[in-house]
Predict the 3D structure of the following.
Amino acid sequence: MKKRTVYPIIATEYHNQEGHYYVATSPTLPELTTRETSVELLTVAAKADIQQLMCHPAVAMDQDPKHWRLTANQHVFAITITL
């Protein structure tokens, strides 16, 4: 039976000399750093990266982001993974 797991990420929006882009990170998954030009592309890339990282036994799943401190340019997105 397949199991669905929701994994929260923080998407940070940047406007600087490098351009306009988004970076996905997670306090509970320090190995995750994904950069894309739109939120839509970011969530797709983050899902693929999380699936890759899930192969490692040290990855913690089902994290609750309610205590994460965000800045004005950060938003939490839920990434659903099917195992």
User: Anything to note?
Assistant: The mean pLDDT is 86. Residues 39-53 form the longest helix (15 residues).
